[in-house]
Amino acid sequence: MEVGYTIRFEDCTDPGGKTRIKYMTDGMLFREALMDPLLSQYSVIMLDEAHERTLYTDILMGVLKKILKKRPDLRIIVSSATLDAEAFAAFFSTNRDPKDRSKDNTAILSVQGRMYPVDVHYLAEPTSNYIETAIQTVFDIHTKEPTGDILVFMTGRDEIEEVVSEIRERATTLPPNKYAEILALPLYAGLPTEEQMLVFEPVEKGTRKVVVSTNVAEASVTIPGIGFVVDSGFVKIRAYNPQTGMESLATTTISQASADQRSGRAGRIRNGKAYRLYTRESFEKEMRQASVPEIQRSNLAGMVLQLKALGIENVLRFDFMTSPPAEMMSKALELLYSLKALDNYGRLTIPFGMRLAEFPLDPMLGKILLDSQAFGCSQEMLIIAAMVSVQNIFVNPTSAAAEEQHRKFGVIEGDHLTLLNVYAAFVTRGKKSSKWCANHLINFKAMSRALSIRSHLERYLVKTLGLTGPSQLPSCLRTDGSGPIDPKEATVQIRKCLVAGYFAQAAKIAPDGTHWISALEARPKGARALSYTPTKLWMHPTSILFKQTPQWVIFHEVVETGKGKAYMREVTTIDPEWLGELAPHFYVLKKQL
Q1: CA distances from residue 590 to 330, 334, 489, 575, 579 in whole angstroms, order as listed
Q2: I need a labelling partner for 496 at 20 to 30 A (CA). Which of 83, 142, 417, 427 fits?
């Protein structure tokens, strides 16, 4: 095939080298640089949507700048609809004589697109409930404005489902008019493909489509027919807090650039209107001009690990377009050291550090897989790693019906073993069928994706460990010549293996039993680690442990709500002694925990 694509865990290109144009994520291009530091198979590299300033786009620009010194024939194109072109051109420019333009090695090209005028409306006073205000605005548009579909921006799935449900319910009470029909549709990343595609379908005459979306509709996709935009003014982003040592999904205010990008969605086919659910004063005085680059708000452990694997030992002197905070860099180095990926001199350990850098996973999850052979549970860990790498395994997980189905697969030790149960049932009893998934309110697309990811990770693990095949990867839930393994013993081995990677994400129940606190704060003075700010943690409502109060747990990630609560997701119960046993360099002796 002449045109192909590569994303994490999926490669649709010609293995014989006939692919001439390849689309890929920025992360995958960076991984290719680990294997081929000069990216010698490419003559032109185009970085699109550069204004989003993702972590890997920023790193790639630094890497490409280094490559250009060795390969002046390489052509780099950086493109975006809302780009600070001068800043990007200055970053790549080698001309130090601004008066002599003949020495320029960069050029700025502007391609004017056709945009219709968009009238922007603000609230006169701030709203205390932007979800309800958004719903009311939708119906004001629907009953008072002429034809044109509506695009509503919300922060995540829960808000989107709430808004869609309310619009559908209230639409049944509308008096007849020429726009009597209203079709509300959700759009977010974890939605099944067939439901995502509905937003692009034309509607019948006399029906107005209302698409309620995350910021995926801000730039990544263009929905035809949009004449009105309702902008909540918020977005959910992944942010790392070096004071707490945790990365979470947090709701925050958008930037002025994002607000303009959202408003522009109303002016693609005709004159449009944008309704901003915040005041003009908030827009002008409280919003940043541009979004904070991801490199300044992310856990940098994976980035530092891969830069070192690329041969860039002194990552602090790497040519970043925007330098990351020093505290985040130091925390990344500390975490990698605690994972034993770096030695006392900050160099990659051999072979473990190099193996970890080659894995397309978060370093903590990568360590779990690499350690799984020693714990005798590689097959189980491959499944767990695949399942936590996809979103929304259960359809509408907070509904009563989904909770009932969820409990059928539940394991008292927590979510990781519950996910293992779901996968095993899908493959065996369910025979990988969509009908079985529908009957159990399980997302068939997510399960199919997990199958594919597990297969890819298995190949990575076999190759990385130098094994001859998957048959050499142990399983603690299978039988061998000596008879069956005790299932209780197997669950202990699996949970211990999880602790080996997630030890930095452990939590202890608070004395009053209402919430948990990070295990980092449970250590007496003198324990090794930088200081952390006390953090209250709650169990996520979708967890199998939601109504339980285990004393000690480890978790996969933290999600913050707009009310400031931090919820642990994918949680498993542990014995606190395992922390001292498996991470004595990070925690104090087990008798002190």
Answers
A1: 27, 21, 21, 10, 7
A2: 427
Tokens 């991801």, residue located: 294
Residue type, 520: L
CA angle 581, 582, 585 (to 5 degrees): 90
Please name which of 315, 309, 314, 319 lies closest in space to residue 67, comparing C-alpha atoms.
319
User: CA-to-CA distance for 232 and 234, rounded, in angstroms?
Assistant: 6
Q: Do domains 3-103 and 293-347 have the same CATH topology?
A: no
State which H helix or E strand residue 573 sits in. Answer: strand 566-573
Torsion angle of C-alpha atoms 239, 372, 478, 423, degrees rounded to 10 = 20
- The tens digit of pLDDT for each residue in 179-232 reads 568 999 999 877 777 788 899 988 888 889 999 999 888 877 888 889 999 999
Looking at residue 90, the DSSP 8-state letter turns out to be H
- The residue whose two tokens read 């081929």 is 36
CB 374 within 8 A of CB 340: no
Q: Which tokens in the block code for residue 48? A: 């699109």
CA-to-CA dists, residue 353 to 69, 152, 336, 349, 506, angstroms: 28, 45, 9, 5, 23
CB 149 within 8 A of CB 209: yes
Separation between Cα atoms, residue 12 and residue 4, nearest integer Å: 5
% of the chain at pLDDT higher than 70: 91
Return d(Cα 252, Cα 263) in angstroms, integer.
18
163: phi then psi, degrees, rounded to nearest 5: -65, -45
- For 52-107, how does the pLDDT look when each residue is reduced to its tens digit (9 = 90+)? 788 888 999 999 999 999 998 999 999 876 667 888 888 888 877 767 766 778 88
Place of tokens 């996969």: 556
* Per-domain residue ranges of the chain: 3-103, 118-292, 293-347, 359-592
Residue 351: asked if its preceding bond is cis (omega within 30°), the reply is yes
Both tokens of 491, joined, read 């669950």
Contact yes or no for 152/163 (Cβ under 8 A): yes
Average pLDDT over residues 290-306: 89
Q: Helix, strand, coil: what percent of the chain each, to 5? A: 40, 20, 40
Element (H, E) at 11: strand 10-12
Q: Which long-range contacts (C-beta less than 8 Å, at least 24 apart) are formed by 326-332?
A: 327/242, 328/240, 328/242, 328/296, 328/298, 328/299, 328/300, 329/300, 329/304, 330/530, 331/242, 331/245, 331/299, 331/300, 331/530, 332/299, 332/300, 332/301, 332/303, 332/304
Q: Per DSSP, what are the bridge partners of residue 276? A: 122, 231
Mean pLDDT on 15-36 = 88
Q: Does domain 293-347 have CATH number 1.10.10.2130?
A: yes
Fold classified for 118-292: Rossmann fold (3.40.50)
Where are any strands of DSSP class E within 232-323? 234-241, 246-253, 272-276
Question: May I ask the CATH class of domain 3-103?
Answer: alpha beta
The answer on pLDDT for 481 being more than 50 is no
